[in-house]
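Dear support,

Our group has been running a series of protein-ligand predictions, and this particular one with adenosine-5'-diphosphate is the one our PI (initials K.S.) wants archived with full inputs and outputs. We had some confusion internally about which version of the output was final, so please treat the block below as the authoritative record. The input we submitted was:
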Amino acid sequence: MLEPNDRRLQQRDYVLRLARAMAAQLDLERLLNLVIAQAVNLLVGNYGLIALCNAAGHLEIRAAFNLPLSSWAAFEDLMGALDRYEPHAPEVSMEIRKVAATLQLPLRQAVALPLLVGEQQVGMLLIFRAALNVGFTADDRQFLGAFADFAAIAVHNAQLYEAANAERSRLDTIIEQSADGMMMLDARWRITRFNAAMEQLTGWPREEAIGRPCAEVLAIHNDRGTNLCLTACPLQAFPLDSHPAIEGWVAHRDGHEVYVGLSYSPTRDAAGRFVGAIGNVRDLTKQKREEELQATFISVMSHELKTPVSIIKGYASTLSRTDVSLDAATQHELLTGIEEEADRLANLIADLLEVSRIQAGGLRIHPTEIDAADIAAQVVSALAATTDERFEFQLRFEHAMPAVLADAERLRMVFSNLISNAIKYSPDGGTIRVGGWHEGAHVLIYVSDEGIGIAADEIPRLFSRFYRVDNRLARETQGSGLGLYLTKAIIEAHGGRIWVDSSIGKGSRFTFTLPVAPPRLPEATTLPSQDHP
Ligand code: ADP
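Confirmed final output from the archive:
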């Protein structure tokens, strides 16, 4: 038989060992199960409960010993009583008796102890004994009290850990689901995190990106191809700038270029040393292209508007000179020149209006049933008259070409753009063919030439606003880069498609589709009346 002192020493030793085990357990649910099982064991009890204070400050059962989950509801009023009264108040004892009766359990002796961290209550421990005559002594209570103090701290720590974890996973979700690219760097500019938007933006899977220097994965470069991450890393400017930023091109792994804006939030330790940074990467490709387009627009327009205006002005001032007399033929030539340049200006303005109409909400067309081959023939003969003998024109429409449903004026514009391009971009002349055939509900129409052709990598941008292939001929020929853009918009407004097949030095062939006009209803005929044969 142990002396009371020895027993106390042994108990203290046990509690200390338990306290260590509890402190090491950061999983709240496991910790609660450990605490309640040990508390029941220490006090030689039969049943036990552990309740924690919820957000509203009420006790809520979180773990139990020897009491199945299905029985927890029966303790609700007891928890309410413990919220309001001291653990040894008669109201609490009464509730315990009620629970025992409801559950038919021998909860004969009970001890309840609050779990306190300083002044703050985090929960409550309840131990029950089934034996009638073995009550809890003051010693038992003191012993449980010491245990409860350790348990309370361990529970509180686990709760803080759980809250910190929840916060971290909330942050993880925010980072992961952010529409912007987000990455984290360590003190040596190596990537430690890479979210889904970053993967999409760069084509790098995170498994490969993580651990590599950001200068290798992003390699942000300027228009001349200089790697800005190596030559002008914004983080090198730190700490002069608290949110260093950089803009430039990133080569996606599939080869296409993305224009990004990258801003960093650097982090420092207490001593002010750089320990890493969060990088926010935004896709600015659309804005960049828009800016480029605006710049192109201004330069193309100023050139395209200035040229005819200065020609008109030059011719007009020659005509108005009183000190020289011009013969009739020269006068006629100058006047024709003025007329042509004025026409060019009018066409350009019409094109610009059309572009702004498309941008303001689409092109309005008025389709009627028309013969596309007829319109092609008219445009060919008008334009052929402007060329010399180096060109030959061929019309190759199949005989059974059905009528199409199209806007006649706009279709004229399509032919005019495509055929005048075929002339413009065939410096040595050649044969220009315009033809078509029909396939199901569509007709396919083409304009082909034997001119300079178009490089394959230019084709995707050919139909964009103001886009002109940068070659000597394009620089020498007048053009606004609007013709193909408008042509495509017109064809698409009809529900058709346009594409080009081309080979450098051999020529190009533009093909588009248009819907066939629906078959005409037969002329109305008078049906014999049934009533009056
Ligand atoms: P532009 O006013 O410059 O002719 P377009 O939109 O009609 O504008 O054409 C865009 C660019 O496509 C042209 O600048 C030219 O480089 C190229 N292009 C168009 N048609 C042809 C063609 N038939 N052959 C070669 N290049 C062409």
